[in-house]
Amino acid sequence: MNHNMKVTSKFFQFAPILLLVLVSACAPAATPTAEPATEVAPVAESTVLNIYNWEDYMDDTILAAFEEEYGITINYTTYTSNEELIDVLMAGPVDYDLVVPSDYAVEFLRGESMFGSLDKTNIPNFANIAPTFINPSYDPGNRYCIPYQWGTTGIGYNIKATGKELTSWADVFDPAYAGRVSFIEEPREAFAAILLLLGHSPNSTNQIELDEATAFLKSNADHIATYAPDTGQDLLDAGEVDIAHEYNGDIFQIMAENPDIRYMIPSEGAMIWSDNLCLLASAPNKENAEKFMNYLLDAEVGAALSNYLRYASPNQAALPFLNEEDRNHPGLYPPEEVLARMFFFANIGSASQLYDDAWSEVLANHGQ
Ligand code: SPD
After folding, report:
1. Does the Cβ of 250 fall within 6 Å of ligand 1?
2. Which helix (H) or strand (E) holds 285?
3. pLDDT above 90 (res 6)
4. How far is the CA of 33 from the centre of ligand 1 (A)?
């Protein structure tokens, strides 16, 4: 699957794909030595695992169950965007073992040699992954990462406040909702939405189109109450905004308690993504990281994670254990006609500087 392309129906064809992992071990032959053998102190087995993940993206009971089963203590910290993760890793050094970048961010970090190779013999549950997520373009051979969750970025809204169903990005910018809208504080996400609204590619690297999107956001500064760092769902739930540009699972999490909340994928198009659990090259606790990966890929643990997070699972063996309602919900597992208008983020390389510059302009204009 080319994750930089528009989504086609193939995304959900879990047709079997054979993954061939060739591991060549070329250990040099032992050289005889006249030196007396010295006693080597046994290396103490690590009992720690350091995970750096998105906010609201883990079930604490799963962490606790893993800690108890393996006698490993998990240090868990969070971030709010791919850009934040990338900045932290590039600034280095870090002592994290596992991080959770989205597809295009995996490709970027792979290019920066940030990841360490997985030993698949330590991850037998790798066989549970749905074929669609095997050998992705951003991580050929799943060398460094396993899929974590996947989802879409759309609009959560409170129907009591909007007074009607919303179906498009244009609806979001109806003057009636001025000052009642939050946008995700992530440049690629925010610009993708506006580029789609303006009829451009959400992965555009065309300066004129980006200028147009920047001008749109600046001229709608009063319409957007705030750019929220992965917290739009909280603002929506608290009634601080009526419309939130957000990740689907985060909106579904608040829907459970608030019957007035809806989620929609705009008619002009929207973004789809897969997040991945990746091993860092500098991971101090590689074996524990692989144990955790294997644990999450268990059918029932994988289902428990998605049932809790309300995101879609890339674990084929987990499907029978997923909540029936979620498995059949078009907002979580969109039908083909909706997938047809969804796009993956492309790794745009050095053109990301165009987005960074435009983003600084938008935030400064917004006083953020
Ligand atoms: N609160 C967890 C949100 C995870 C979203 N990850 C995907 C981001 C794609 N830009």
Report:
1. yes
2. none
3. no
4. 55
Residue-wise pLDDT for 109-127, tens only, equals 999 999 999 999 999 999 9
Residue 202 has phi, psi (to 5 degrees) of: -70, -10
| CB-ligand 1 contact for 230 (6 Å cutoff) | yes
Nearest Cα residue to atom 5 of ligand 1: 247
Least confident of 26-35, 318-327, 357-366: 26-35
**Is 341 exposed, middle or buried (CB count within 10 Å of its CB: 0-12, 13-18, 19+)?**
middle
- For ligand 1, the distance from its centroid to the CA atom of residue 54, given in whole angstroms, is 7
Q: Which of 31-35, 43-47, 196-200, 261-265 has the lowest mean pLDDT?
A: 31-35
| Residue 215, Cβ density class (10 Å: 0-12 exposed, 13-18 middle, ≥19 buried) | middle
The reply to whether ligand 1 has any atom less than 6 angstroms from the CB of 55 is yes
Closest protein CA for atom 8 of ligand 1: 102
Take atom 4 of ligand 1 and give the residue whose Cα is closest. 54
Q: Residue 104, annotated ligand binder?
A: yes
Q: Is the CB of 344 within 6 Å of ligand 1?
A: no
d(CA 110, CA 96): 16
Ligand 1 centre distance from Cα of residue 92 (Å)? 22
| CA of residue 185 to ligand 1 center, whole Å | 11
pLDDT at residue 102 is higher than 80: yes
The pTM (predicted TM-score) of the whole model is 0.88
Distance CA 250, CA 332 (A): 11
Residues 150/275, Cβ–Cβ less than 8 Å: yes
Structural domains of the chain in order of their starting residue, each with its CATH number: 48-150+275-334 (3.40.190.10), 152-272+345-366 (3.40.190.10)
| Nearest Cα residue to 74 out of 56, 94, 55, 97 | 97
* pLDDT value, residue 25: 27
Distance 155 CA to ligand 1 centre (A): 14
Cβ of 234 less than 6 Å from ligand 1: no
Angle at CA of residue 273, ends 151 and 80, nearest 5°: 85
pLDDT band, very low/low/confident/very high, at 45 (cuts 50, 70, 90) = confident
pLDDT at 172 over 80: yes
